[in-house]
Design brief:
49% helix, 13 strands, D-Maltodextrin-Binding Protein, domain 2
């Protein structure tokens, strides 16, 4: 009788623990995250994962974000669409990979002034969206958690060092969209191709140059085939961490508040710091460990490039199909923020 009673008590305890565990598991909100980067990528390690950890910690285990890496759910260009459709609850979507999808966001960063490098690029992007409702309206199909912007892109060459404007002439350079129109004005021959093919194309001499960043030179090993860099700003890559609207609406209010607080107080500064610190670290690695060299154009050449870019900017912005008044406001707002957050190339890269 005593053994039977002990057995009943034991199984009662097990049932209670099991019930608590099951109930607790049911209360966990699991959200899928569509990512193009692999788990070894520095943006995951230093920015995305810390953001996720902060969300999960503040929610005290109520939220679990499940990442799907390396385009496992969709191509990078389709991440936004995967979130809109509900294939994924969240995604880190690029805004410049599918022409025509985001007319303003894919165009405005091609208007960058060549002689200015924006170090606080993510801060600039977030303020740009706040100040321009028509740009923010392009993301109306999703809940935008936050946006972030890469460090400046520039020209990287394999054999020819670009030390003056004349050196651009005849260079076969990988480019796309509005940037192709701009670089053609300085004698570059723009060549369109998928980015995964660029390394081999440079290695085989099909391309002389490509739009490049210091992080690509080190993290993706482009520094093995690209030996020379001329940091004139050619643009930035815009991204957004977005959530499916239905998934957002189903979240309890306290969880929504946690997302809003972390996005505002942590994510924006985290990504802003990540982009520039990685750039400077990668520059040092490229120059000291990979034998790469950085060259700077004269102030006179930079003035010429600025004039060309600003002149064509008014034509390029017409692609947005915004009315003329709106186009002028887009350019004006971007130039204002560029000056607010930007510095000279020498100051940015420590020449």
């Amino acid at each position: 009788m005593k053994k039977k009673l002990i057995g009943i008590i034991f199984f009662s305890i097990l049932f209670t623990i099991s019930s608590i565990t099951t109930s607790s598991a049911k209360d966990v909100i699991k959200l899928t995250l569509n990512l193009a980067v692999p788990p070894t990528h520095q943006r995951w390690v230093l920015a995305i994962k810390p953001w996720i950890d902060e969300i999960e910690t503040r929610s005290e285990g109520k939220v679990k974000i499940v990442p799907y890496f390396a385009q496992a759910l969709s191509k990078q260009s389709d991440i936004y669409k995967s979130v809109v459709s509900g294939m994924a609850d969240m995604g880190e979507a690029p805004f410049d990979r599918k022409p025509g999808q985001f007319p303003i966001l894919e165009t405005v960063f091609a208007l960058s002034t060549p002689s200015i490098a924006v170090k606080d690029s993510t801060l600039m992007f977030n303020e740009f969206l706040q100040n321009l409702p028509q740009a923010k309206n392009e993301l109306k199909e999703v809940k935008t958690l936050f946006v972030h912007l890469s460090s400046p892109a520039f020209i990287g060459t394999s054999e020819v060092a670009i030390k003056k404007m004349e050196d651009f002439k005849g260079l076969k350079m990988m480019s796309w969209g509005a940037l192709s129109k701009l670089v053609s004005q300085i004698g570059v021959v723009p060549v369109g191709m998928p980015f995964p093919d660029v390394y081999m194309a440079i290695q085989k001499g099909v391309l002389d140059a490509s739009i490049m960043t210091y992080t690509l030179l080190t993290d993706r090993k482009f520094g093995k085939v690209v030996h020379h860099v001329t940091p004139v700003t050619l643009g930035y890559s815009p991204f957004g961490m977005v959530m499916n609207k239905k998934a957002w609406s189903k979240l309890p209010k306290d969880v929504q508040n946690i997302f809003d607080e972390v996005n505002r107080d942590v994510a924006i500064n985290l990504f802003n710091k990540f982009w520039w610190e990685r750039t400077i670290k990668a520059k040092k690695t490229f120059e000291e460990s990979m034998g790469g060299k950085t060259y700077y154009l004269s102030s006179g050449d930079l003035v010429k490039m600025d004039e060309i870019w600003h002149g064509l900017g008014k034509k390029i912005i017409q692609k947005t199909k915004v009315n003329p008044t709106g186009q002028a406001k887009i350019i004006s707002e971007f130039r204002k923020l560029e000056l607010k957050y930007g510095v000279s190339l020498n100051e940015a890269y420590g020449n």
